[in-house]
Amino acid sequence: MKIAILGAGAFGTALGSILTDNGYDVDYYDSKIMNEPLQEVLATAQMILLAVPSKSVPYLLPHLPKKKPLIIATKGILSVDTFKDFKDYMILSGPGFAVDIKAHKKTKLTATDERILKMFGTDYLTFDTTDDEKGVLMCGALKNVYAILAGLLGLKTGTKEHRKFLSDVENEMKLILKANGAKPETVDLVCGKGDLKITCAYPSRNFEFGDKLKDNPDYQPEKTVEGISALKKIKRGEIVIPENVSLLLNLIERSDKWA
Question: What is this structure's pTM?
Answer without folding.
Answer: 0.94
